[in-house]
Design goal:
The protein is an alpha+beta fold. Helices cover 25% and strands 38% of the residues. It contains three helices and seven strands. Strands 1-7-6-5-4-3-2 form a seven-stranded antiparallel β-sheet.
Length: 135
């Protein structure tokens, strides 16, 4: 079984022309709370905890360290329990070379057999982002 993770790159066109509006959704705890997980809490030392489901029922919590971020540009995180030091997940604001539209570029890592599931997960995340923000 292959244990080397593969990088997934996805481009999502956005409806806004303002990088600042996108940043508010991807680069702040308040913004991430609106669409990425049911609960997002800031911990010490640039660590955030993300919880899916409600604490009093079936739920799943993961912690991620913010490796780097630049306002109105990108945020890069790595799961605390990540065994592959090269694996991270990133959301980057940029412009499409073809259309010049503002896009959200997502980079994430998974085992080859999990790449399709990871793409589906991000597609669902982006659908929620669009529903809550119109992006």
């Amino acid at each position: 079984m292959n244990t080397t993770k593969k990088r997934l790159n996805i481009e999502y066109p956005l409806t806004t022309k303002s990088a600042n509006i996108v940043w508010e959704q991807i680069g702040t705890i308040h913004g991430l709370r609106r669409w990425l997980a049911d609960r997002v809490e800031e911990q010490a030392n640039d660590v955030i905890s993300l919880t899916w489901g409600e604490p009093w029922t079936d739920h799943h919590t993961l912690e991620a360290r913010i490796l780097d971020r630049q306002k109105n540009s990108f945020i890069r995180l790595q799961w605390i329990n990540e065994e592959d030091p090269e694996a991270y997940w990133e959301m980057r604001i940029g412009r499409s070379e073809l259309t010049d539209e503002l896009c959200l570029y997502v980079a994430d890592y998974a085992l080859p057999e999990d790449i399709d599931d990871l793409r589906d997960l991000w597609d669902g995340n982006m659908e929620r982002l669009h529903q809550v923000s119109g992006l």
